[in-house]
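pinned: reference chain
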Amino acid sequence: MRALILPFLLAAIAVGILLGRLLVRPERVTLVALLSSMPLVFASGFIWPEVAIPTAFNQVVQLVPAIPAIKAFIRLNQMGAGLAAIVPLLGQLWLLALGYGLLARWQLGRGQAMPVADRPRRS
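pinned: its structure tokens
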């Protein structure tokens, strides 16, 4: 279980940094996370059967670090699986952490973000 925590945290932090840099107003990151949380819980296969989720949607949500983390934690905690059973999900988390980490680093390297007060207003 501890093996999942580090890649999940790294991926989630990188996604947060990336969203914070891409969205014009920082408070919108919270709004995006809040509005996407319920669909992501359903897409994880925890509440809704994974076979009932459209394939295209299921493939897109695999880019969200919470999905492989939820699947792995369920297998470990509820199904009694060993570490060998979650190796593909662990690898997916590490790839997401690396990919989002590189994207976040690239965004941070592009220069300082404008302070909120100086940003242009969008209607």
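why pinned: Helices lie at 2-22, 27-43, 55-61, 66-77, 87-109. The radius of gyration is 17 Å.
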